[in-house]
Specification:
With 435 residues, this protein is α/β, with parallel strands linked by helices. It folds into 2 domains: 3-226, Rossmann fold, CATH 3.40.50; 247-433, Class I glutamine amidotransferase (GATase) domain (Rossmann fold), CATH 3.40.50.880. The protein has helices spanning 16-29, 45-53, 67-80, 105-112, 129-139, 156-169, 203-217, 220-226, 261-269, 303-307, 310-317, 328-332, and strands at 3-8, 34-39, 58-60, 83-87, 116-121, 145-153, 175-180, 189-190, 193-194, 247-251, 273-277, 291-294, 322-326, 336-338, 344-346, 353-356, 363-371, 383-390, 393-397, 403-407, 412-416, 418-420, 423-426, 428-433. The strands form 5 sheets. Strands 3-2-4-1-5-6-7 form a 7-stranded parallel beta sheet, sandwiched between helices. Strands 11-10-12-13-23-22 form a 6-stranded mixed beta sheet. The chain has a 5-stranded antiparallel beta sheet with strand order 21-20-17-18-24, with no helix packed on it. Strand 22 (418-420) and strand 23 (423-426) form a beta hairpin. It is globular.
Length: 435
């Protein structure tokens, strides 16, 4: 029977992404059937999981997904493999909503019953690590800790000091591994989080080193024994996001890499055909596609190349098909995009929108969205949940709005996005229907 384990941390930046990726690659080496998941709306961490495991990583979002949608994806990922390694988001109890915990890793742990292994960044800590662990172990009886992995341990003496303190004060939480600090195993970051795995030239070598280091530093067999099947037995029903068309062309390259695998799989289950194309290679969508999806990503880093992609841009301007853009894809559908150096680049010009990274403004958080007019996403009034995370400043955004939007606490944020004929988009990454 398959089962899962959740790898959480006290805070962001504890190193859980590389540890989970190392475990995935290590188990793959051993011939273990393994799958991965990521809590929340993160697009970047799953790129490391997918490369390490050789299979797509699925996002599991307790806030943005309806219970039946979430249960279906949990059941599906468990069916795919013997062991599911699920990486948490931020700190174990960090979430959204009025209580600050909705959608947290802890919420997913309660829903699934998967055991929680806490990855603790031990850098700069001594005996105080026991107080930290004790706090997390006793904070919520419904989220017990099954074990610990100490990360960035300075020396054997440091390892012994940490382990002895934990054994004295939290004897029921075993230390399952201690990974030493290694400057060659530090992942680089930029404004949306980690640099995606596909952009790291030596990524496979890094994953191999992580697999070796984690395999040598952790009690793998003891970890595997922890895995438990989830309590989510609901059958996978119809996904919540309607397909944009029967044949959907999806932009996919370094400028457009933020598309939920679960959403694409849901479109396929409803009979849609998915094809991919690369705007950075100046490719056009498939000629027979009746819909084009431009997901988010980093168009600001490739603005000049996109502006020069005449075949790609011409294909968007020609024809009579549905075109939908999210976040970065939305910016490309606009008139112009100004990069961080202040240079303005002409985009597709299909929506009256101009954006800039020269003066950054951060907008992030969960969003509830209500559709303001009927279209490919559904009838007027249809409701969705999603996530907004961007650093662009809107210089101009005029015309017919797409959504009426509220945050995770229910505070109204006004209108968002644009629609013009069959072209529409917003900065919100949609996750699921809320109806």
């Amino acid at each position: 029977m398959s089962g899962g384990i959740i790898f959480a941390a006290p805070k962001s930046g504890s190193g859980k992404t590389l540890i989970v990726a190392g475990l995935l690659r290590h188990l793959r080496r051993r011939g273990v059937s393994v799958a991965s998941a990521k809590v929340g709306p993160d697009y970047i961490d799953p790129t490391f999981h997918s490369l390490a495991a050789g299979t797509p990583c699925v996002n599991l979002d307790p806030w943005a997904m309806r219970p039946t949608t979430l249960a279906g994806f949990i059941a599906e990922v468990e069916r795919r493999a013997k062991i599911v390694l699920c990486e948490g988001v931020m700190g174990l109890f960090d979430g959204a909503g009025p209580d600050g915990e909705a959608g947290s890793t802890a919420e997913l742990a309660r829903l699934t019953g998967w055991p929680v292994v806490l990855v603790v960044d031990a850098n700069g800590q001594g005996g105080s690590v026991a107080a930290l662990v004790a706090g997390f172990a006793r904070h919520d009886a419904q989220v017990p800790l099954a074990g610990l992995i100490l990360n960035r341990v300075a020396s054997p003496r440091h390892h012994a000091l940490l382990s002895e303190a934990i054994a004295r004060h939290v004897p029921d939480v075993p230390v399952l591994g201690a990974v030493s600090a290694d400057e060659s195993m530090v992942l680089t970051t930029r404004h949306l989080g980690l640099v995606p795995a596909g952009e790291i030239r030596s990524i496979d070598a890094l994953l191999e080193r992580a697999a070796t280091r984690v395999g040598e530093s952790c009690d793998i067999d003891r970890l595997l024994v922890l895995a438990r099947p989830s309590g989510c037995t609901d059958k996978l029903g119809a996904p919540g996001l309607p397909p944009l068309g029967q044949r959907i062309a999806v932009a996919r390259d370094d400028a457009f890499l933020f598309a939920y695998e679960a959403a694409l799989a849901g479109c396929r289950r409803l009979g849609a055909e998915i094809s991919f194309f690369s705007p950075l290679a100046d490719a056009a969508p498939a000629a027979d596609a009746d819909a084009v999806y431009l997901p988010g990503g980093y168009p600001e880093l490739h603005a000049a190349k996109l502006a020069a992609a005449t075949r790609f841009l011409a294909s968007l301007r020609a024809g009579d098909r549905t075109i939908y853009g999210e976040c970065g894809g939305y910016m490309v559908l606009g008139e112009a995009l100004t990069d961080a150096d202040g240079k303005t680049h002409r985009m597709a010009g299909l929506l009256p929108l101009s954006t800039s990274f020269a003066e950054r403004r951060r907008d992030l958080g969960y969003r509830s969205a209500r559709l303001l007019a009927s279209g490919p996403l559904g009838a007027e009034g249809a409701r969705f949940r999603g996530h907004e995370f961007h650093y662009a400043t809107i210089l101009e955004e005029k015309g017919n709005a797409l959504f009426s939007v509220a945050d995770a606490c229910g505070n109204e944020l006004g209108r968002a996005g644009l629609r013009h004929g069959k072209v529409f988009g917003s900065f919100i990454h949609l996750v699921d229907s809320a109806d």
